[in-house]
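Let us work through a complete example step by step.
Step 1: write down the sequence.
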Amino acid sequence: NLTEFGVLASARKKIKRVIELSGTPGPNGVFDLGGQIYLLDRGERLGRNKTTFTKNYFDKNPFTHEISERPGSREAIMAKVKDVMIGLRSQDYIDLPPQMFNPIYVNLSPKHMKEYREFERTLVAEAYDVEAVSRGVVTNKLLQFCNGSLYRTDDSVYPPKRETLHVHDAKINALESVIEEAAGNNVLVAYSYKFDKERIRKRFPQAVFFDEEPNFVKLWNAGKIAIGVSHPASIGHGLNLQHGGHIQCWYGCTWSLELWDQFNRRLARPGQKNHSVFIHVILARGTMDETQYEVLQSKGVTQDAIMDAVRVRLKNVR
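Step 2: predict the structure and record it as tokens.
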């Protein structure tokens, strides 16, 4: 009944040497380092368990259970672990093309913007008969609204049936513009929800989906896929797709810095022949989309701070 971490912690007792590799050691801040450092030193630096680690460096809200860094905690934690961490950025030792981010803001119609604001305020979208049971749920529903559809659950039947309701075409039209402006260059697209996938399939019949084509990587790198589509959780880690194109597009974002970072690294890799990689991000103006994008930037700052604290440049080593 052990968790994956529990299995690793138990096995650690019998392991003499541990080397951990991670491209995103702290996607949500230094709190993520606790378990990783424990597997290295079995609690010598940051505490023998999660409770001790949390108590020493963080404040926990007794009502929401939200954990926040105590002032000075990040510096104290990094000071204790820097002797067992080494940080290398790819740009330090690999000649990579720069990533050019391009937020594309789309404006919802006055009618849809009014519906959005009402939904945000009351947790009910009357025009679509959709209700969010809490503020946490409404966040996800608002992101669905931004992407152009909503899920509605029909509880009158058993088992409950989930329906997809069309709301607007703002984002799918923006994606069409991105593909047209690519002028024949291949485009790699990330989506958030299953209804995004179906909207893209309907608008672009020529699109090829990563989870449906077993030879996707080979075909993409051969330049035979004009529009490649995937959920970022499926296509992220380790795939070399730099030979098939230099344009990416987020149809819908993610809350995960790791998924964000990993998907953005699929084309900006050694062997990319274009001088730069373009990453378009489609955002509905004045909505939760913008908030999500800003959170990714702030998490990125934390991630960078962790990496920079243990960074080693090869020129200094030489």
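Step 3: interpret the result. The chain has a mean pLDDT of 91.
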